[in-house]
Design goal:
Length: about 120
């Protein structure tokens, strides 16, 4: 069973950059895609960015396009989320997730808090 562990979240000022990491271990052969989601207080969890494990194609939410970049290190089974030009509305708990062969995100990390102050 895949286990996911996020790291890198912290408090920053608006305009700053931050890189989140997600290390995957155990059963990574069953992973077909990895993604980042976030949940702000009082809001539903939303998709941020995703990457296909096969061809490394990526997709992003409109709200983060051109500011955030998802990438991976195959050797380390780690996926990253580079976040630039952070805004207060980016404040949320960020979750790493793994998708199965159906494209469903069904394995989740514990989350890492990102707080952006103005």
């Amino acid at each position: 069973q895949v286990q996911l562990e996020e790291s890198g979240g912290r408090s920053v000022q608006a305009g700053a950059s931050l890189r989140l990491s997600c290390a995957a271990s155990g059963g990574t052969f069953s992973v077909y895609a990895m993604g980042w989601f976030r949940q702000a207080p009082g809001k539903e969890r939303e998709f941020v960015a995703g990457m296909s494990w096969g061809d490394s194609s990526t997709n992003y939410a409109d709200s983060v396009k051109d500011r955030f970049t998802i990438s991976r290190d195959k050797a380390k089974n780690t996926v990253y989320l580079q976040m630039n030009s952070l805004k207060p509305e980016d404040t949320a708990v960020y979750y790493c997730a793994a998708a199965n062969w159906l494209g469903k995100y069904d394995r989740w990390g514990q989350g890492t808090q990102v707080t952006v102050s103005s």
